[in-house]
Amino acid sequence: MAQSCDPNYAKACVPIASDVDCAGGNGNGPAYVTGPVIVVGSDIYGLDRDGDGIACEPKGPPKAAG
Predict the structure, then answer these.
(1) Which residues contact 48 (CB under 8 A, 6 or more apart)?
(2) How far apart are CA 21 and CA 38, in angstroms?
(3) Closest listed residue to residue 9, CA positions, set 27, 35, 31
(4) Residues 6+ apart with CB under 8 A from 31
(5) 58 pLDDT band (50/70/90 cuts)?
(6) Rounded distance, CA 1 to CA 47, Å?
(7) Which of 14, 40, 17 has its CA nearest to residue 30?
(8) What is the model's pLDDT at position 3?
(9) Cys-Cys with 6: which of 14, 39, 59, 64 at CB 3.0–4.6 Å?
C-alpha cells in the first residue's frame, strides 16, 4: 500500500501521522522524514524550526556574526 504524503510539504514525502519529526533530530516520532523539505502550507508538525520555509535542513557550520 502506498504511503500518503501531507500536502503541506514538498520535495520529500512527509507522511500523514499523529506526529512527524526530522530524522536524526531529537523528536520521538512515531514517523520521521529526511529533509530538506519545503513547507508549502501550514507547518502542522513544527518541522521548520527557524521559519524560513525549509524544514529538516542539514546542520551546517554556525553562521558568522555580521
Answers:
(1) 39, 54, 55
(2) 14
(3) 35
(4) 15, 17, 18, 19, 20, 21
(5) confident
(6) 26
(7) 17
(8) 72
(9) 14
| pLDDT band with cut points at 50, 70 and 90 for residue 61 | low
Domain ranges of the chain: 1-58
Place of cell 510539504: 9
Residue 49 to residues 2, 3, 22: CA-CA distances in angstroms? Answer: 28, 25, 10
Q: What is the distance, to the nearest Å, from the Cα of residue 51 to the centroid of all Cα atoms in its chain?
A: 11
Task: Please write the tens of the pLDDT for every residue from 1-31.
Answer: 457 999 999 999 999 999 999 999 889 999 9
